[in-house]
Structures are given as structure tokens and as C-alpha cells.
Specification:
The structure holds three protein chains of three kinds.
Chain A (H helix, E strand, L loop, with lengths): L1 E12 L2 E12 L3 E5 L6 H8 L7 E6 L2 E2 L5 H7 L1 E3 L12 H8 L8 H6 L4 H18 L15 H13 L5 E5 L7 H16 L3 E5 L3 H7 L2 E6 L2 E6 L1 H6 L1 H8 L1 H4 L3
Helix pairs in contact in A: 3-5, 3-6, 5-6
Chain B lengths: L1 H22 L4 H25 L7 H17 L9 H8 L3 E5 L5 E5 L1 H20 L7 H21 L9 E2 L4 E4 L2 E3 L6 H23 L2 H11 L1 H6 L4 H27 L1 E2 L6 H14 L4 H16 L7 H15 L9 H19 L1
Helix pairs in contact in B: 1-7, 2-7, 2-10, 2-11, 2-12, 3-5, 3-6, 3-10, 5-10, 11-12, 11-13
Chain C lengths: L2 H32 L6 H15 L5 H24 L7 H23 L17 E3 L2 E3 L1 H23 L1 H11 L1 H6 L4 H27 L5 H15 L5 H18 L8 H15 L8 H6 L3
Antiparallel strand pairs in C: 1-2
Helix pairs in contact in C: 1-5, 1-6, 1-8, 1-9, 1-10, 2-3, 2-4, 2-8, 2-9, 3-8, 5-6, 5-8, 6-8, 9-10, 9-11
The chains are: A alpha/beta, B mainly alpha, C mainly alpha.
Chain lengths: 257, 358, 296
């Protein structure tokens, strides 16, 4: 069954058609990658799904709920978590606290409960801390729990951001270029992590430039070019698709092949 | 737990100051310390709005005035002429009114301080809620001007309405008995008691806000301040959290206004003036924005100096100057300024000179 | 309402409205080049009035006003050079607080120099009771001075921004700062210039209006709030919009005198401001898309 269904979604910025009539479905428990040259509309697509931008037309449904018109926080509450292309850490907070923010939707203590430490507050707080710690351990950065997040190395910040997204216990995880800025070893590590995340029962949709990573881990690939979907298939077929090769390598390269 | 322990030395200091003042026969200092404590109560509330939720408010004197003026008016304005009004009868029948005789033997019917206090706080919270809704949309300049405008409206209203005493304000406000034997009033005998009440209120407020910051809500607020986009994607309803924080701080301001008005036995329009709002903002800025302790300490120190008349007729100018200097050289507050940083800043200024010569 | 009374109110509304428009344009000029709202804008108006009143003791009125405007422009330049110029990427919150601090310092300085009494320049022509008939109503010639001066300033500014190369550079700086820098425009000087310009027009308006509206050390805040209301109404950064909105607010205020007690008059402008912020933060004449592109 399709967990996420994108139907004829379009986004116009003034005269620029950033995404036009893109449709695809995401099977529960799968990993799907969206690839395409710069400016193909990949990040715009992510922003449409996560509610940052309203779509010009088309429909997105998640678990049967229409996402159109929802604000990002409402989308998050339905079970869609995301990471950002340029990592957005919460400055002034430790790695652990960053992940604890991710537990927001899974907990409910409000202003009064927090101020007066009403019954249930402390146990919930302990639970938030325990779950967040578990995630830091899962991602192998437990030792940095009390380090201020902004002081961590780039790769570690990515891990914190991933832990933070996982803390939502999402059904769907949107990863915006998870390997950007990482070296070859870290990229391989991220690849292993993503597969692990899928084994936890979380469906993954990612935008990525690193082709070896994409080919390695994805079940299916969607190719965008100038806002339009030009191909959707399993990695082996995408690699041989002449149209895809053409836009990636240019006109001439496709001919001798 | 940790938070509560930090307060113990402070509590000890509060007691030592009182004992010293009593022994050295300088109890009059306690009056200003009491007033400073109430002002600081407002300031720590504003600190959460500015430092943690990242919203500026130039209208907090307005909330202070709503609290103070409503409480003062309700507990002093005679309801005898309206005795036959259905509402007055209803209030009387549920025991919210207090009948007595004034000094001339005229019968007096006023609202009890507790009821007045609740009414004032509810009003302030409600107004903050309505005013705060633009907070859902507004940022930066718009919010600053909206809150400034709100503050001016309150100032004009109290200045123009006879009910609030126009330029004279309201005087002869009765004491506010919180618990039997515990009365907020300007009574000379109650000076020490009131000192402890004020500091008790301030420290309780401090504990509550520290709890708030160190919780799910506090983390969400800090997340909003640092990266609204990421906080949003974590499922934090940023607009609602900002709004609630604003309302909370308005309640703190109103309560400060209520208690200080009962302590002083009156309130005047200067409490609602824009300069007061700016002063509160200045103190939060000096304290380091996102620093409750800094805000509280600076609130006590600067208000105490100001109340002792240390700044003379330059009172407002001093706060204006403080604002500018802090924002120019130490946007993280003077407590956040380390020596090294200071040296760096001066180096920065020094470096400009040769560049200008060139 | 008789026709005479109607015209009387209308003229009063246009008079105040053109002053609000000038303050709003002052906001716009600085906002366009820097993206900040200068909370000390109202103080320029106060300085213009106060300085010319003081200078009048030593020289004829035209020279006094010219000198007062010049001095206020210098003050505007000094403010920018001392407080704004050297800050690198200051946050909006920080800039708001700094300009508020500046406005307080100017106001307090004015209080210590001039005291808290109400002052005014003498009428340029005739005195308080001189009037000329306009459609049956009696209008003070000073009113015409105010309206005329404000109109000339608006005309001068639009010519300046359209025709001169400095004006065009300032507009380029407003449209796209980075691109302006790449074209070799020294945007920092443009910012200083924008402070000088808004100080100048504020001061001139302050001097011309003082015979009828009077001047006091603390008129700045009220004027700033109203000027800001007008700037928002007209769409922040949109000066033709500011003129329309200024006249609108002035006329609304003038006619409200017959219905609302005088003490609540300021509250009207602020209520309008709050309503606008609720409903149309991009102003009556601005588009929401354009407002969305600006940083706040």
C-alpha cells in the first residue's frame, strides 16, 4: 500500500515553473530517492511535501490524509520528519537537547505542567531523555550528548539532525542530501544508517547527489529535470535509461553508448 | 531540583540583607528592595518573551498598568451608588464585595482584593491574548510598533478617564491580605514582612520560569528562537508557543502591578508610560536577553539605584544610554561579556581609526 | 455639518496628514536603504522645531530654519556614523533597540536643553488670527505654508530619486543591496545619506508646523507612531502610498474630533495601526507578495 502519494503536483514561483505535474507513490517500508541536476526542483518537492510551501496545484496524500494546506508542524504531527540540506541545529542547546526537541510531538506537558512540575511531568521528562539518549547511541554519538551541538564536527551534526528526526518516531523520513559535505567513509556510514532506519519500519524518501549512495540503498528512483519527472524505476534500470544518461552526462556522451 | 538548590544562597542573602538593615537601623532600604523585587518579577517574565521566544515587547508597562489600575480601581471605587445593579448584587451575594465605613462614616462598598486581583490578571491575560494574535504573523519592526502602540493606548486611557483618576492616578488603595496575617501594604510595621513577601513572590516566579525553560516547552521555545524552520518541522506549533509565552509574561507583569500598587497604596500614570516599557527592555538586554538570572540581578540593581534617585534627573537618559551601549558592544549582556571579548571589541574600535586616516 | 465646518476639518486633516506623510517618508527612505525602522524619526521633527526656535533669537527666521535643518541633518549623519555604520549584520531586534535608545537620548537631551515647556515659532505671515477665506471657511496662512512645504518636499524627493545619479544609486541600493555593491556603489555612504535626507525633511516639517502645532521635547514618540502607521498603511517603503495614507489618517483624525474626546485621538491612529497589522500588514496599497520578499 502506498504510504505517500503525490499526484500531479505543481509549484510556480512567479513565472518559474519549479515543479510541474509530478506524480509518484511511495510504498510503505521502501527507500525512494529523488535525483536530478541542480535546479531540477528536488528541494522544492520536499518543501511541498513537508508543508513549507503551498502547492500551486495537485494533491499529496499521506496515509490517506490530504496534506494540502497543512502547516509544517501539522505535517510533522502526522508522522513525517525531515532533515535539511544545510543542517539546522538548534544553537545554544546540547546535542541531547536537540534530539529532545524531536520528542515534542510524542509528549504533551504544557506550560502549567512544566512550571508547576505537575504529576506525570517528571516521568515524561525522563522518558524523553531516555529515548533521546537511545537514539544518540544508535547513531554512535552518545559520547557527545552534552556537547553544544554547534561545536560538533559536520558529520556529527548530521547524525544529531538524523537522531532528532527519528525522535519524532515518524512513519516517513525525508532526507535532504544526507551525504552532502561528508567524506567517502562518512557517506558509507550514512548509507548503512539509512538501511538500518528502513529496517526499523520507517519509509525513507531522499534527495541526493551522491550516485553511488543512491544506487546502493534505494529501492526505486525518481528522476526530475526542469521540474518534470522524466523517469521512475529501480536503480539498475535508471542507470541504463538513455534519457537519464543524457541529462546527466550531456547530449554527446549518450550517443557513443 | 538543581534549580531549587541554586536559590538557597540567594535566599540566605535576602535574609542577611534584611537582618543587616534591621540592625543598622536602615530599614528604609527595604522599601526600595521590595519595589525592585516587584519590578524584577515583571522583568523575568519579559525575559522569557525576549530572550527565549525571541519577541520584543515595548508594551509591558501597559500590562503592569492594567494589573495595578484595575486592582486599585476595583478595591477603592465605591459601589454604593450602584447597589441596585444586578451585577453588583450578584457579586455581593457570592461574597466578592466588601462593605465598610470610610473615615467620614459614609458606607463604602468595594471589591475584595482577591477578587480584584483575579479580575485584573484575567483582563491582562485576555488583552495579551488578543494583542498577541498578531504575534502569529508579525515579526521585528511590526511587533515592536504594535506593542509600543498598545502601551501608548493604555497610557492615554488611564490619563483620560476619570475612573482611573486621570493625571493623579488612584490613591488610598487598601492592603491586600494574601493569607491571614500576610498583608501586602505600605504599612510601616509591615515593612519587613512585605520585603519577604515581595522576595518570596520573585523567587517563586524565578523557580517557575526556570522550570519552564528546562522543560519540553522551554526547549521548544529555544528551538523556535534558534531556527524557526527546523522547530516547525519538529512539530512545534511556533505561533501558539509564542502567543502563550506572551500571555504568561503579561500575567507576570499584571501581578507585579497589582502587588506593587497595594504595597505603594496607589498608582499613577507614569507607571504606564512608554519609558517604563523601554526601561524593562533595557534591563532584560543588560541581563543578557536569554538569561533569567541576569535579568533578575539587573532588575534589582538598576531599579534599586533608580529608586534611590542615583540617576537624578537623568533617570530616563541613563536607561537609554544603557540600551545603546549594551546593544552596540555587548548584545549578550554584560554578564555574558568576558574580558577577552571586551578586549576584542576595543581592538575593533581601535582598528577603525587607521582605516579612516587612510 | 455645515460646509464651512467641513472644509475647516478637511484642511486641518490635510495639514496634519502632510506632516504624517513626511515622517512616514522619512521612515521609508531609511528603511529602503537599510531595512531598519528608525525609531528616532519623530525626534528629527522635534529637533527641527526646537533648533529653529532657539536660533531665531540670533537671526532672521529663514536663516534660522535653514540652519536648524542643516544642524539636524548633521545630527542624522552623526547618528548613522557613530551607531549604525560599523555594525556587521546586526539583527533586527538589535537595530530596533539601538534606534529606540537614540530617540530616548535625543529626547532627554532636549528636555535638559529646552525644558518641558511648549514652544512655537511665530507665524510666518501675520499671527494666530490672520486668516484667508477658502470656500467660506477661514484658513490660517500657516496651514498653506505647511501643506505647500510638504508638497514641495515630496516633489523634490521624487525628482531627486528619479533624476539625479545619487538618487538612482540610492534606489539601486534599496532594490538590491548586493547588486548595488557589485556595481561599485558605496552602499554605506548611501545609508549615511539616507539618514541625512530623512533628518532634513523631518526637521523642515518640524519647523514649518511648529507655529500651529507647537513643539515640545517629547512630541517625537507620538509622531513616530503615527508616521509608522502611515508608512504601514501606505505599504512600507512605498512613498506615494505614504502620502495617500498620511492624508487619509490626517482627515480621519480631524473628523473624529467631532465624535471622540480629544484625549483619545492618539488612540485612533494606534487602533488603525493595530487593525492594519492584523488584517493587511503589507498595507492598503502594497501587495502581499512584495511584502513577503522583504525581510522582517
Amino acid at each position: 500500500m502506498a504510504l505517500l502519494r503525490v499526484e500531479k503536483i505543481s509549484k510556480k514561483f512567479g513565472g518559474l515553473q519549479a515543479v510541474s505535474d509530478v506524480s509518484f507513490a511511495l510504498r510503505e517500508g521502501s527507500i525512494k530517492a529523488v535525483i536530478g541536476p541542480n535546479g531540477a526542483g528536488k528541494t522544492t518537492l520536499f518543501n511541498l511535501i513537508s508543508g513549507v510551501l503551498p502547492a500551486t496545484s495537485g494533491e499529496i496524500t499521506f496515509k490517506g490524509h490530504a496534506l494540502n494546506g497543512l502547516r509544517p508542524y501539522q505535517v510533522a504531527r502526522l508522522g513525517i520528519a525531515r532533515t535539511f540540506q544545510n543542517i539546522k541545529m538548534f544553537a545554544g542547546m546540547t546535542a541531547l537537547e536537540n534530539v529532545m526537541v524531536g520528542r515534542h510531538v510524542q509528549s504533551r506537558s504544557g506550560f502549567l505542567a512544566s512550571m508547576f512540575r505537575l504529576p506525570g511531568f517528571l516521568s515524561e521528562e525522563r522518558e524523553i531523555r531516555r529515548k533521546s539518549m537511545e537514539l544518540l547511541e544508535l547513531l554512535g554519538i552518545a559520547e557527545y550528548a552534552d556537547t553544544e551541538a554547534m561545536n560538533l564536527a559536520f558529520g556529527q551534526q548530521r547524525a544529531v539532525e538524523l537522531a532528532r528526526a527519528l525522535a519524532l518516531e515518524p512513519a516517513l523520513l525525508l532526507l535532504d542530501e544526507p551525504a552532502a559535505g561528508l567524506n567517502i567513509y562518512e557517506t558509507a556510514e550514512i548509507g548503512r544508517l539509512i538501511t538500518k532506519i528502513r529496517e526499523m519500519g520507517i519509509t525513507v524518501l531522499l534527495v541526493e547527489h551522491d550516485m553511488s549512495l543512491v544506487m546502493d540503498i534505494s529501492d526505486e528512483i525518481v528522476v526530475l529535470s526542469f521540474g518534470q519527472k522524466i523517469a521512475e524505476d529501480i536503480p539498475q534500470k535508471i542507470q541504463r535509461d538513455p534519457e537519464v544518461i543524457r541529462i546527466y552526462l550531456g547530449e554527446e556522451a549518450a550517443v557513443p553508448a | 531540583m538543581r534549580n531549587t538548590l541554586v536559590l538557597l544562597p540567594l535566599l540566605a542573602l535576602v535574609i542577611i540583607v534584611q537582618l543587616l538593615a534591621s540592625w543598622t537601623d536602615s530599614v528604609f532600604y527595604l522599601t526600595q528592595l521590595t519595589m525592585s523585587a516587584y519590578y524584577s518579577f515583571l522583568i523575568i517574565g519579559l525575559c522569557v518573551v525576549m530572550g527565549y521566544a525571541g519577541q520584543i515587547s515595548l508594551g509591558h508597562a501597559g500590562f503592569f498598568a492594567i494589573g495595578g489600575y484595575l486592582s486599585a480601581a476595583l478595591t477603592t471605587r465605591n459601589l454604593v451608588p450602584f447597589q441596585d445593579n444586578v451585577l453588583v448584587k450578584l457579586l455581593d451575594s457570592v461574597g466578592l464585595l466588601l462593605a465598610s465605613k470610610d473615615v467620614y462614616g459614609e458606607s463604602l462598598l468595594v471589591v475584595t482584593p482577591w477578587a480584584a486581583c483575579c479580575a485584573a490578571i484575567l483582563t491582562a491575560a485576555l488583552i495579551a491574548f488578543v494583542i498577541g494574535i498578531p504575534v502569529l504573523k508579525l515579526k521585528g519592526h511590526y511587533l515592536a510598533m504594535a506593542t509600543l502602540g498598545f502601551g501608548i493606548i493604555i497610557f492615554r486611557l488611564v490619563l483620560a478617564s476619570a475612573y482611573f483618576g486621570e493625571a493623579d492616578g488612584i490613591s488610598d488603595v487598601p492592603g491586600f491580605t494574601l493569607l491571614p496575617g500576610l498583608t501586602v501594604s505600605g504599612n510601616f510595621q509591615g515593612r519587613v514582612q512585605n520585603y519577604y513577601i515581595a522576595w518570596g513572590v520573585l523567587l517563586i516566579g524565578m523557580v517557575l520560569l526556570r522550570h519552564l525553560i528546562d522543560s519540553r516547552v522551554g526547549r521548544a521555545l529555544r528551538a523556535i528562537h534558534s531556527s524557526p524552520e527546523a522547530a516547525d518541522s519538529m512539530g512545534v506549533d511556533t505561533a501558539r508557543f509564542k502567543l502563550y509565552t506572551f500571555v504568561l509574561s503579561a500575567i507576570f507583569a499584571a501581578l507585579a502591578g497589582i502587588l506593587l500598587t497595594h504595597y505603594n497604596g496607589g498608582i499613577g500614570p507614569s507607571e504606564a508610560s512608554v519609558m517604563k516599557s523601554v526601561r524593562y527592555v533595557a534591563i532584560v538586554a543588560v541581563g543578557g536577553m536569554a538569561n533569567l538570572w541576569g535579568a533578575m540581578i539587573m532588575g534589582i540593581v538598576l531599579n534599586f539605584l533608580s529608586l534611590r534617585g542615583m540617576f537624578g534627573s537623568y533617570d530616563d537618559a541613563v536607561f537609554g544610554l544603557i540600551l545603546i551601549l549594551i546593544m552596540l558592544f555587548a548584545p549578550n549582556g554584560i554578564l555574558g561579556l568576558h574580558l577577552g571579548q571586551l578586549r576584542q571589541r576595543f581592538a575593533l574600535i581601535g582598528r577603525k581609526r587607521p582605516a579612516e586616516e587612510a | 455639518m455645515t460646509l464651512e465646518l467641513f472644509i475647516q476639518y478637511l484642511v486641518a486633516g490635510i495639514t496634519y496628514g502632510s506632516i504624517y506623510a513626511i515622517v512616514a517618508i522619512g521612515f521609508n527612505i531609511i528603511y529602503n536603504t537599510t531595512g531598519i525602522i528608525n525609531f528616532a524619526q519623530g525626534e528629527f521633527v522635534m529637533l527641527g522645531g526646537m533648533l529653529s526656535i532657539t536660533l531665531l533669537q540670533f537671526m532672521p527666521i529663514t536663516v534660522a530654519i535653514a540652519l536648524a535643518v542643516g544642524l539636524t541633518m548633521c545630527i542624522g549623519a552623526v547618528i548613522e556614523i557613530v551607531f549604525i555604520r560599523w555594525l556587521k549584520n546586526p539583527s533586527v531586534l538589535r537595530m530596533i533597540i539601538i534606534t529606540i535608545g537614540i530617540s530616548i537620548l535625543i529626547r532627554e537631551a532636549a528636555l535638559h536643553v529646552w525644558g518641558d515647556n511648549v514652544r512655537a515659532l511665530p507665524y510666518f505671515i501675520g499671527n494666530e488670527i490672520t486668516s484667508i477665506p477658502v470656500l467660506g471657511a477661514r484658513v490660517s496662512p500657516q496651514v498653506l505654508w505647511v501643506i505647500g512645504t510638504c508638497s514641495l518636499m515630496v516633489l523634490f524627493l521624487s525628482l531627486f530619486f528619479k533624476m539625479t545619479s545619487i538618487g538612482r544609486e540610492m534606489r539601486a541600493c534599496a532594490a538590491n543591496r548586493t547588486a548595488a555593491i557589485l556595481c561599485g556603489i558605496d552602499t554605506r555612504n548611501m545609508v549615511t545619506l539616507s539618514f541625512i535626507l530623512s533628518a532634513g525633511i523631518g526637521a523642515l516639517a518640524g519647523a514649518v508646523m511648529s507655529p500651529i502645532t507647537y513643539t515640545q521635547y517629547d512630541i517625537g514618540t507620538g509622531l513616530a507612531i503615527k508616521g509608522f502607521t502611515v508608512a504601514i498603511l501606505g505599504g512600507l517603503g512605498n512613498s506615494p502610498g505614504a502620502v495617500a495614507a498620511g492624508l487619509l489618517l490626517g482627515v480621519i483624525e480631524a473628523f473624529s474630533v467631532s465624535m471622540v474626546p480629544l484625549a483619545f485621538q492618539d488612540a485612533i491612529a494606534i487602533a488603525i495601526l493595530l487593525v492594519i497589522l492584523f488584517v493587511r500588514p503589507h498595507g492598503l496599497f502594497g501587495s502581499s507578495a512584495a511584502a513577503g520578499l522583504k525581510e522582517f
